[in-house]
Structures are given as C-alpha cells and as structure tokens.
Amino acid sequence: MASITTPVTVTIGPAADGVLVAAAFTLHECAYCLLPIPSGQPWVREKIYEPSSHNGPCYRRYHADLFGDEELSCWEKHQMELEITRTARTAMPIV
C-alpha cells in the first residue's frame, strides 16, 4: 500500500509589534479523488492498521460533502466500493 504524505505550508509574517509570527497549515488530500481538502471543509478520517508496519496506524481522509451535482461524497463512494468488493468475495463459490 502506498503511503500518503501531507505537506505542511508555513507562513511567516510580521505582527503589529514587529515580531515574526509563524502559522502552519497542514494540507490533507482525499484518498478517493486525490484532490486537496481545504481547511474548514468537512472530511472523514479512516484509520488503517498495517500489521507489517511497526509504526502504528496510518490515516486516509475523504471528502464528506458532495461536489456540485454528484449524488455521493468521496467517503460514500469509497464505502460503496468496499461493500461491492466484500459482497463479490462472499458470492464466489469456494471449490
């Protein structure tokens, strides 16, 4: 499984009294559509445990809201794909 890195943008600007102020913003990427998830936009986080990795769990983020005229959010599409895969596996006869 590929790992997803989240870049961090650091903005440094002078405050009113001349002191520099730094603010870090983490950009998250949707694991379904691969578009950035802007700050303030609702998203869903899925926790993934990889037994082969001793680093602990990793997380995937998905858009929780609909885009334009779409009927499902990225999270709902992901859940539907998982359900179809699970159903297809259980429907196959074991020989």
Descriptive report:
The protein has 95 residues and is α+β, with helices and mostly antiparallel strands. The chain has one domain. The chain is built from one helix and six strands. A two-stranded antiparallel sheet has the order 1-2. A two-stranded antiparallel ribbon has the order 3-4. A two-stranded antiparallel ribbon has the order 5-6. β1 and β2 form a beta hairpin. The chain is flat, with a radius of gyration of 19 Å.
At a glance:
The protein has 95 residues and is α+β, with helices and mostly antiparallel strands. The protein has one helix at residues 74-91, and strands at residues 8-14, 20-26, 28-29, 36-37, 43-48, 58-63. The protein is flat and about 50 Å long.
- Biggest beta sheet summary: 2 strands, antiparallel
Radius of gyration, taken over Cα atoms and rounded to an integer in Å: 19 Å
User: What's the rounded overall pLDDT mean?
Assistant: 76
What is the overall number of helices? 1
The H-and-E topology, N to C, reads as EEEEEEH
Number of domains: 1
- Approximate shape: flat
Tell me the distance between the termini: 29 Å
- Helix/strand structural class: alpha+beta
Q: Give the strand order of the largest sheet, numbering strands 1, 2, ... along the chain.
A: 1-2
Helix fraction by DSSP (H/I, runs of at least 4): 10-25%
Uncertain runs = 1-16, 20-24
Counting DSSP E segments of at least 2 residues, the number of strands comes to: 6
- Strand fraction equals 25-35%
